[in-house]
Structures are given as C-alpha cells and as structure tokens.
Amino acid sequence: MSLKLKGFFFFSLISLCIYSALIKHIVLMCAFIVLGRHLTFGLCTNKNSMKGKTVLITGGNVGIGYETALEMTRRGAKVIIGCRRIEGLKQKIEATVPEALVDVFHLDLSLKESVLDFCGKVKAGHDKIHVLINNSAIVSRPENSESPNAKEMSADGKHELTMATNYIGHCILNDQLMDLVKKAGEDGDYARIIMVSSVVVFMLTGNLHITNKFDLDAKSVDPKKFDKARQYANSKQAQILYTRKLARKLKEDGINAIACANCPGLVNTKISDGMVYWTRMIFTTIGWFLGKDCKMGAQCTDYLATESLPKNEINEGFFMDCHSFNFLMNMRAPEEKLDAFWEHTQQLMKA
Known about the structure:
Number of helices: 15
Helix content: 40-55%
Distance between the termini: 41 Å
Radius of gyration: 21 Å
CATH superfamily of the largest domain: NAD(P)-binding Rossmann-like Domain
Strand content: 5-15%
Order of helices and strands: HHEHEHEHEHHEHHEHHHHEEHH
Strand order of the largest sheet: 3-2-1-4-5-6-7-8
C-alpha cells in the first residue's frame, strides 16, 4: 500500500472517529492489537559480526530475503543471492550498504538445469558457505493466480511448479553445495542450513504426516480437485520433514553443520501476488493491521544465521519469533515418515 493511500486511510479513520463512537472504539481496539503485536514480535538483538563468512540466500531480491541480505551485508558477510529477477539488484544493495560484498546470479529453482548452472557459478568463485538460506517461495505464477485449481508445471515439464520452486529445487541446491557447507564447518563454528517455512499453512492444511504414499508432484490428484493452496502448504510441510532428516544425516556423516527451519509469521510480501484475488485481499488487509513488514519478518532468519546457540539447541529445530517451537516438528514431521519421505525426495531430485 502506497504512503499516500495509507495517509488517506488514516485521516479518513480519524474523521470517522470524530463522528462515530462505535468506529472510535473499533479503531482503539485495533490500535491496541497492533501495538501489542509489535511489542511481542521476536527480535534478533545480537550484534554478532559475520565478517569472513559467506551467506547464500535464495529469493534475496524482494521481501524477507532482501531484508536478510541487507542485514548480512551490514554485518560484514559476503552475500550470494540467487533469484529470477537480478536486474539492478547488486547496485541497489550497494547503494543501501556501500561496503556490501555481494554477488548476484540468476536462479530459477523450478528448473534443475538452472539450479546446476547457479551452483556451478557459486563454486567457481567461492569455496565455503557458512550459512545457506532456503528462502524463495511462491504460491503460483501471478498471471495464473485466479485459477486456484489449475496445476502448473515447471518449464521443463518435470515437476509441479510450486513444489519444484519451494522444495525440490532447494533440495538439489543444498546437495550440490554441501561440500562448501562442509568446508565452512571446518573453520570452527558450525555451518548452517536454514529453511524458511510457514507454520500456519502446514499446520492447518498440510497432510504429508498422515499420507501413506507420498506424491509431491500431485501426479495422482484429480486435475479437477487440484488445490494450489494445499500444494503450497505441502511444500512448506515438506521442508519440515526434510529438515529433520537432513539434520540427522549431517550428524551421522560427521559434517559440522546444522539444519533448522523457521516461520517468519504473517508478513506482507510479494508471495500474495500468487493468491486468488479474494484471498490476497484478506491476506494483505489482515497483514497490514496485524502482520509484520519484511524487515520484521526477517528477524528470525537473521537470528538463526547469527546467534551463538549450542549446536544441539538449533539442529533439527523449528523457530518462530526467535524462540524454539520444536514440538511442531513432532506433530507434523513424525519419526516414522522421515526415511520414506527422504527416499521419495531423492527420486524427485534425479528427474
């Protein structure tokens, strides 16, 4: 929402409050809710330097990813950003943080070829990744947002688009860059792989924890019953199952690195562009009153990337507002599903 529109909205409310006691009480109630929400937002309060460290972020051109990239550059990290729209991004970051050390490469996570090309460029110029942030996500292509039951495929036709972008592409990325993560862990402090998930969607609509046969590409789903919102929820829940198994494999393989996930909360970001109109309006309206801006939404990711936590407290953890909520892992990523889910993921990565 533009500043002028917000100003018009604000002064209209003031005028209504003058002439209507009911409106005044409603506005006061909303104001207290907004104030209380902001006072309870989790903040990354540490000032830990990231000098000498390399941070890779997917989707770092807008929203939460962009704010995370800015914070990491301010702390002195070398930042690598992979995203689809790269025009002017490096210059924009350098204008905001003059001392920024940043590389920007094109990356379309829905295409394996693009992921491999991106990883090749990263490896050519870097030998370590201390923090790898799986941030990028979509609900659907904005131009197809008004067709909630239309299944979209990646350009190469290999995978359903949302799952490929939010989950499968990140798994390939992590696998391809694992040697760089491993080497970063040899510096002393553990390296970190962070998945930016969403607790509300996978808690309310994700069904991977109860399915008997995984079908992340929704191949067996009746085309008339395909639901983009459900697929988005499953992609976020997939990250949680993956996080638990990856965290254990890192430990088993003797790699000094952790895997964890977080939920940024209700944040007004560009992801709403892929929602159906009425859902987008509800999301943005509630978000405007009760949600976070992108800088606040990045706080938990910043925390996990920089906080000095004991390794056993962050590995295989799930965090919101800079606090641990590990019980959610047990509820939506049960032990008995991890191995089968991991194998299903490996098969999808090979396609």
